[in-house]
């Protein structure tokens, strides 16, 4: 579960970075551009923190999980409400689902995480 959390956190962080730069390629409303920029940055920080903690043998922090899930939900709904046009909407929905999944998987790992989630990376490698 630790590797799944680590890699999903990395993919979700990259998806958050895509959300940040996406309004530069499409003509979107000002509120949508701000929403994508601000929530994308917050989600990227939270997800990168969760991925870092998973790769260093610690469980994700509850605040990072909550921030990633809330940011993912808002990013998922925002293009439907603020600027619903086809290419932007499709890309935003796809990347927002990745952001949301990264936060949810970090939360599942925190709840279900066993001894492997509390080992350092060196301890996991030595055990293999």
Automatic annotation (TrEMBL):
It comes from the Archaea. The chain crosses the membrane at residues 7-26, 32-51, 63-82, 88-108. Keywords: Membrane, Transmembrane, Transmembrane helix. This is SPW repeat-containing protein. It comes from Haloarcula salinisoli.
